[in-house]
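Researcher: For the record, we're logging two predictions in this thread. I'll number them. Prediction 1 follows.
Model: Prediction 1, sequence and structure:
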Amino acid sequence: MVTMTPDSNFADRWPELFGTLDDQQRAEVLRELAASGREGGPTREEVENLTDRARGAIDDHEYGRRARPSADGQNGGLRQLPPEGMSGVEGASHLWTG
């Protein structure tokens, strides 16, 4: 389980991913990351996918495509689209399988 400490502030770790988000989008992404419970925390790629989705750069279909495991199985553990009817990052916390 990820313990939120000052050094696990994802926005500080990858400021370039959060720079274009408004306050609400940023808060939603950070809330999802904090709730993910993935041991070791999310990868930069996972954070980028969430921030891209939050700001509307990608849709649910593209988010799901990016989340599928790569051929070598190294894709950070993201496995599926959020539940039907959920948009933005509100349904993403179930994606980390740790």
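Researcher: Logged. Prediction 2.
Model: Prediction 2, sequence and structure:
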Amino acid sequence: MPKPSLRRKANKRVARHRHRVVTKGKRRVELVVPASDVQLMKSLATVLREDGAAAADARRALRSLAPSSRSDEPKTGRDLIEFFRNSPLFGEHALFARDS
């Protein structure tokens, strides 16, 4: 096991690196994907980090596949009410019973 002083130095380096990343407007994320997609996700992350024309194309393609990620704005209570009103079950009467 590493010495406590070495561990503290490593933690400080990691903290400084993460601070630099955040100040550049980036965020660290962790994904769980099938093993066969790991290299694909790493390649996609590289493209998105470079922020060029390829990144714009990748974002456009991803947004078309995942329409729920189109808005970066947080959802409000009004959005939730609108969602339920647009539901095909709107106006239906539901009976709920609890297990005893």
